[in-house]
Structure to design on (265 residues):
């Protein structure tokens, strides 16, 4: 029997079969969880519904995390269908393309800042507010996805870095508030992965190659790597872990002098 048997999980952020959220969904399904999914618009509905059906999930609903009424409606449906919920996965981030083009100093507008923080950080709080009442007495777990740009300046990541820093603080404050109710809140800081969100980011392929050269594991991480860690963190195996950011990056963030040195290797 899988270590998530009997658990019910809501996955927010699947866009394609290469999404990190889809890797998480597959790992959770493998470990016995029952899943619900959301899509952000009709174009994504066409992609998410077949993926959900392929693993026996029929609970698929619209959810734009910037609209409170849609979050209310999503959790109303979950309450109707399931009565409660054990796991919420938040795998959503967005900054306007212009904000990720050029330098932080020049690319960051008030509106770009607002949108990045609203979609990528506030949305976790908004989901937690609706999920918590449905998690009472069930060892609930919330999980979000972060990136190294939260704690280091990374060229081009720009205002998304600030939004991820906010998201990581969000994890700690939610963990403090929800711990007494038995609900854990954690994040995974994943290494770069070629997903739809990464498509079209100039130089992303090159970045993947350099990261793989430098990381101790000498490879890039996959949605499966992140999915397995996510399934663990949201399971009762991780009952003692909350407010944590777990790096799933092949060790990239742990090395210093992270450039080739003559005579090494
Ligand atoms: O968090 C991310 C990217 C999230 C993202 C991606 C886009 C592309 C399309 C947020 N907003 C948008 N807006 C769009 O219009 N990552 C961790 C992937 C990523 O993005 C980078 C990276 C890495 C890694 C951008 C610059 C440098 C590195």
């Amino acid at each position: 029997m899988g270590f998530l048997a009997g658990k019910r999980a809501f996955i927010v952020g699947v866009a394609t079969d290469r999404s990190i959220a889809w890797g998480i969904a597959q790992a959770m399904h493998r470990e016995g969880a029952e899943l619900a999914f959301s899509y952000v618009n009709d174009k994504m509905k066409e992609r998410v519904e077949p993926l959900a059906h392929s693993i026996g999930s029929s609970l698929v609903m619209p959810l734009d995390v910037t609209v409170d009424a849609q979050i209310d409606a999503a959790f109303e449906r979950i309450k109707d269908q399931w009565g409660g919920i054990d796991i919420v996965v938040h795998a959503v981030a967005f900054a306007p393309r212009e904000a990720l083009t050029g330098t932080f100093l020049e690319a960051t507008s008030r509106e770009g800042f607002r949108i990045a923080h609203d979609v990528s950080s506030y949305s976790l709080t908004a989901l937690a507010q609706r999920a918590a009442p449905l998690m009472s007495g069930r060892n609930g777990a919330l999980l979000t996805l972060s990136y190294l740009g939260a704690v280091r300046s990374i060229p081009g990541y720009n205002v998304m870095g600030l939004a991820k820093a906010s998201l990581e603080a969000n994890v700690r404050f939610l963990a403090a508030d929800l711990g007494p109710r038995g609900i854990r809140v954690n994040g995974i800081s994943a290494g770069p992965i070629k997903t739809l969100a990464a498509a079209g980011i100039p130089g992303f392929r090159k970045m993947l190659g350099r990261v793989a050269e430098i990381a101790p594991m000498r490879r890039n991480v996959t949605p499966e790597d992140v999915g397995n860690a996510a399934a663990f963190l949201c399971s009762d195996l991780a009952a003692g872990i909350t407010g944590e950011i777990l790096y799933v990056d092949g060790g990239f963030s742990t090395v210093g002098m992270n450039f080739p040195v003559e005579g090494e290797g």
Notes: The chain has a mean pLDDT of 97.
